Amino acid sequence: MLKKLIQSLRSPRKRQPHPRTTPLVLSKRQHPLGRQQISRNALSVIERLQHSGYQAYAVGGCVRDLLLGLPPKDFDVATSATPEQVRAAFRNARVIGRRFKLVHVHFGREIIEVATFRAGHVEQARPDNQQSAHHESGRILRDNVYGTLEEDAERRDFTINALYYDPGSERILDYAHGVHDIRNQLIRLIGNPEQRYQEDPVRMLRAVRFAAKLDFDIERHTAAPIRRLAPLLRDIPAARLFEEVLKLFLSGQAEITFDLLCQYDLFAPLFPASAKALQRNPRYSEALIRQALINTDQRIAEGKPVTPAFLFAALLWPALAPRAAQLQERGLPASVALQDAAQELVIEQCKHTAVPKRFTIPMREIWDMQERLPRRSGKRADLLLENPRFRAGYDFLLLRESAGEQTDGLGEWWTLYQEASDSQRRQMIRQLGQRDSATPDEPASAAPRKRRRGGKRRRGPRSEQAGE
Ligand code: ATP
Ligand code: MG
After folding, report:
1. Please, which residues have CB within 8 angstroms of residue 2's CB and are 6 or more apart in sequence?
2. Which stretches make up the Polymerase A arginine-rich C-terminal domain (predicted)?
3. Is 76 a catalytic residue?
4. Ligand closest in space to the Cα of 155
5. Residue 438 falls within a domain, yes or no?
6. 122: CA distance to ligand 1 center in Å?
């Protein structure tokens, strides 16, 4: 199907160096994209803008994905109208954006993002001396400089993302040989790769994301500087990197994305603690992270919900477990050691990817569960079952076991317990009491209980809070 679609893209002219000031124009007959494939709301936005005398096109991911026979995630529109002019043309429009202004036109649940043509990087000599502000490293800090359609094409990241579709004439405008690269399944930056990464290092992550999503190769020159420039990601605001990480791992191709991130040294700047754990204990760490990503991809393929909390819990666990064990060796009780290590790790990770509290809280609850699941005596097992985080905690336990962790059959015990009748459950707890009577409350791996240096315990046993 994909091959057929790619073959159906007929090249109107021979390939030339990019970018161009006059586009290649693909007429209706030269490409497989049909007007009816564009969302009705995007069509109405484009038509309204065009009737008001502005240029307007469907652009970016939607044109790329439709040419590849994939369902677009959303529809973006590029226009010569300024954000204020766009807002004036629609009642249901809102201006948004910090890095640059965009307009969101709302149609119930669908949002059409309308961006004004912008001029991009500095190579362009602008007659009016308007230029984007640059950081010393070349990073663009502010690029709300409006431009022409040609300039807009040039400032986009990859050639395959710089295709403009006009639903009126049903033509595609191709300024950067994007159609050629779609046909050859290549991710290629527009312009000088090194400079484009320095302007915005997130483009390195985007290269990997699109390579994984589309199963494309990253073109040689586009790939070459990535490993050297990967550390530039450390200067990117943590909130933006968090959003990018979600797109990287929650788009259905997380496992391949992870491999590419590691291959290009991009994983360490995003997850430094996990990267260290991968070096120290590669077999377990990689198995756990990989299995979590495989499960995530599978859930997405089945249309099941996925949560960033579980994903981050898994990505960070290989770094957390040894830290908690270390604190335990110094004499902290297992539950306190885990909580202290978690606190420290979350603070550290948020400096790189700002994980919002609504995800760090459940993430830490999933981790807490790992310490509580071995303690099942008395009413504890039933209280744990009622805990809203039980399911995630249990899934996480199975994940740890699938990575080769020895838990003395704990996962299987919980599987049976969930399926058991009341009397069977009582029996299972009784057997447990006999078996574990020597050390009823400690997980198998727990170090002998030592007193903290100050002599006092900080908190009561965590299990007493079960079922909160
Ligand atoms: P998808 O929505 O499927 O993830 P997309 O290509 O639509 O992919 P968006 O992040 O929605 O990606 O961005 C829309 C378009 O804006 C891109 O296709 C690209 O042309 C441009 N763009 C986005 N981010 C950048 C960037 N960092 N540098 C240059 N251009 C960018
Ligand atoms: Mg998009």
Report:
1. 68, 69
2. 331-456
3. yes
4. 1
5. yes
6. 20
Average pLDDT of span 443-468: 34
Residue 9 maps to a domain? no
Known active-site residue 368: no
Write out the DSSP string of 158-201.
BGGG-EEEETTTTEEEESS-HHHHHHTTEE-BSS-HHHHHHH-T
Domain boundary among 160, 182, 204: 182
Residue ranges around ligand 1 (CB below 6 Å): 60-61, 73-74, 76, 156-157, 161-162, 200, 202-203
Catalytic entry in 65, 157, 174, 368: 157
Indicate which CATH number applies to the domain containing 401: 1.10.3090.10
Q: What is the pTM of this model?
A: 0.86
Percent of the chain with pLDDT over 70: 83
Range of the structural domain that residue 68 is part of: 17-182
* Cα distance between residue 41 and residue 112, in whole Å: 7
Structural domain tally of the chain? 2
- Of 135, 164, 182, which marks where a domain is finished? 182
The rounded distance, in Å, linking the Cα atoms of 238 and 309 is: 17
> What one-character-per-residue DSSP string does 399-426 give?
HHHHTT---TTHHHHHHHHHHS-HHHHH
pLDDT digits (tens, 9 = 90+) for 349-374: 999 999 999 999 999 999 999 999 99
Which three-class secondary structure state does DSSP give residue 260?
helix
